[in-house]
Predict the structure.
Amino acid sequence: MAYKTAMIDVGGGFRAIFGCGVMDRMLEDGIDVDMCYGVSAGAANMTSFIARQHGRNHTFYTKYAFRKEYASAESFFKNHNFANLDYIYGTLSNHDGEYPVDFEAFETNSTGFTVVACNAEDGSAKYFDKSRIRFDDFDVVKASSAVPVACEPYVVDGVPYFDGGIADPVPVQKALDDGYERVILILSRLRDEVRQQRKDLPPARILERSYPAAAERLRERYKTYNGEIELAKRYEEEGKVLILAPEDLYGLNTLKKNFEGLEMMYRKGYAAAEAIPEFLGK
């Protein structure tokens, strides 16, 4: 029986290299899904996956990410963004960039793509579809990746957006509601980690002044994330979801990296993908 299949990559800054390993293994094994749901860095990972550019994400995390133009305090003071989204998803990724997205391959691939962002003004989840990603226009990926306070909101079609992980960090229910019967869920935290509120409180206080609705979503994110993970585990017991998660974070977090940790996380993702063919009935 052929199932309607989806894959979710929840992102997670530099930890999200775990998903790059998963997707490179899938490309090697010739495994496709019908729909990809990308949150934050997960949306960037999936752009390369849909374009079938094996190894592209690995280069970004292990080479470009160590440049000060990519992510640094200097970038924050200069551009008001710790991660320079225009550099990452523009200068490097456009057709004349150092490692462009193969946009023709991306567009002709029949795999659908949903990019999750958070409306900064009302705190609602926004689901952009594949058609909103255009030649040399990866604005929705930038919007989904705009970590509050570390980045300014990214404006798409006149509306400011923050990181999708605030509004719908683990969109498993969304995928099932959209009609997908088998969902691969890629996490970048330990599968049993319970998210705490305390790290979100200081940025929420800063955000409160400009975007109170988004600040409220940020304060509640720990509940949203933990609830959605519990739901995913229940669906996993029913055979509808396969959760792939690292067993260690190797010293990585959203904005902190080290080369060895990135390599280890990538390899663990690559190994974890071994479970996918059986789950999808391939």
Summary: The first strand starts at residue 5 and ends at 9. Residues 40 and 77 are 22 Å apart (CA to CA). Residues 5-275 form a domain with the Cytosolic phospholipase A2 catalytic domain fold (CATH 3.40.1090.10). The radius of gyration is 17 Å.
